[in-house]
């Protein structure tokens, strides 16, 4: 069902505002913890970006793929999904306190939070607000995490709130090393994100 796929895909882009860094993480792996802290501080300063890529999802009763456009401007986001995942396109817009999902030929759906939107439409509970951090290669700062670093002191994998996130490749853009291919594993849900174009921004300066 197209609407069901769109709502699942939309959690890639359902965001919360950026908070400060915390030390609620256990660090292991090949990298240097001091270099990781510097890398994390640099990426946390990004509060805007434009992403073009592909997203795929696999679940017991749902699977599909599509193209993804993600525009982030501090706490405002505009996400557009299209392609072979269904019969049309979808647009997700919002900021903290107001989320709207528009699906071609099917209507408009609103909620106060991204978690509420998924809970109401699918009955699923997902840590969707973490993804504004995970997409940059960072753990979310508001809960405990286990971080495994690669040889370049970037995330190789992340365990947080019952999710396992694998970072398969990175790309350098404007002086930032950003995730290029990411796999997310949750309970009965696998998501693959392939980012073909990163345009990072620092808007709060």
Automatic annotation (TrEMBL):
Membrane topology recorded in Swiss-Prot or TrEMBL: Lipid-anchor
Subcellular location: Cell outer membrane
Keyword annotations of the record: Cell outer membrane, Chaperone, Lipoprotein, Membrane, Palmitate, Protein transport, Signal, Transport
CDD domains cross-referenced by the UniProt entry: LolB
Keyword Transport: yes
Signal peptide stretch: 1-21
InterPro entries in the cross-refs: LolA/LolB/LppX, OM_lipoprot_LolB
Gene Ontology biological process terms in this record: lipoprotein localization to outer membrane; protein transport
Example of a GO cellular component annotation carried by this entry: cell outer membrane
PROSITE patterns: PROKAR_LIPOPROTEIN
Assembly with partners or alone: Monomer.
The family this protein is said to belong to: Belongs to the LolB family.
Record function comment: Plays a critical role in the incorporation of lipoproteins in the outer membrane after they are released by the LolA protein.
Protein's recorded name: Outer-membrane lipoprotein LolB
């Amino acid at each position: 069902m197209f609407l069901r796929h769109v709502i699942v895909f939309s959690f890639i882009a359902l965001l919360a505002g950026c908070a400060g860094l915390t030390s609620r993480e256990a660090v292991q792996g090949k990298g240097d913890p001091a270099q990781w802290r510097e890398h994390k501080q640099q990426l946390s300063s990004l509060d805007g970006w434009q992403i073009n890529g592909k997203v795929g999802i696999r679940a017991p009763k749902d699977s599909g793929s599509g193209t993804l456009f993600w525009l982030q401007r501090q706490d405002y986001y505009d996400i557009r999904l299209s392609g072979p995942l269904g019969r049309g396109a979808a647009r997700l817009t919002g900021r903290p306190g107001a989320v709207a999902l528009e699906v071609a030929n099917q209507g408009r759906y609103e909620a106060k939070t991204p978690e509420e939107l998924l809970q109401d439409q699918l009955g699923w509970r997902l840590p969707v607000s973490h993804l504004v951090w995970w997409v940059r290669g960072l753990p979310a700062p508001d809960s405990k995490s286990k971080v495994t670093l690669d040889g370049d002191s970037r995330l190789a994998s992340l365990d947080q709130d019952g999710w396992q996130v694998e970072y398969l490749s990175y790309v350098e853009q404007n002086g930032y090393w950003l995730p290029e291919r990411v796999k997310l594993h949750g309970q009965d849900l696998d998501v693959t994100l392939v980012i073909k174009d990163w345009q990072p921004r620092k808007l709060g300066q």
